[in-house]
Amino acid sequence: MTFSSSLIDDPKPLVLDTSVLINLHACTYGERILRAVPNDILVPRIVANELEHETSRKNGEHSFLHGLIGNGEVTLADLTDEEYTQFSALTSGSPSLDDGEAATIAIASTRDLHCLIDEKKGRARALASMGQKEPAWSLDLLHHPQVIAALGPEQEIDALYLALRDGRMRIHDNHCGHVVNIIGPKRALNCRSLPGYKARRLDWQAETVSSK
Fold it and tell me: Keyword set for this entry (predicted)?
């Protein structure tokens, strides 16, 4: 199955979860990607706080986000009282969400914006909280037509590969074949976050051998 970005021709601002920022940093083209996307970008302050820990400071995720804020590529968003009420329900309900996912959903649903979440549990709660409006994926950003045009085909492939390999980006099972066709089976073998990796890797190994 091919993949078409769900963000095409929709000008609503985007609200990014922590995992999306991690993928953007890992792909090494994060700032260029966000600059190419025409939508305004919001990051909940609670999400930003999740990148304050020592690991994110050492690997560069913290400075990446604050560089985006300093350059005006993203805007920090604080929860309103109404959003905090929903945030509290999402973090205390069952199944409970982490703070970043809950803040992302609360802001997006209250303000009628797009949220970007990759994790299965967070996506399910977002769908229920937003009138069955499906959240977007990191892949919707990386494979946006304006991003492809800005990066060029080779760098777009590199961005997808690095987000998968180093950011451990999650994608839907239906999109796995399309993504592997883009990055190639040899690179797919290094991307353990791909859905069905253990079952599919034998096919990718065979394709790699047959292409030599």
Answer: DNA-binding
User: Which pTM value belongs to this model?
Assistant: 0.94
Q: Name which of 138, 186, 180, 184 is nearest 163 in CA terms.
A: 138
Q: How far is CA 5 from CA 14, 40, 165, in A?
A: 13, 16, 21
Give pLDDT tens digits for 111-134: 999 999 999 999 999 999 888 889
* Residue among 11, 31, 23 nearest 147 (CA): 31
Q: For the chain, what are the domain ranges? A: 14-139, 171-212
What amino acid is encoded at 144 in this protein? Answer: H
CATH of domain 14-139: 3.40.50.1010
Contact criterion met (CB below 8 Å) for 141 and 147:
yes
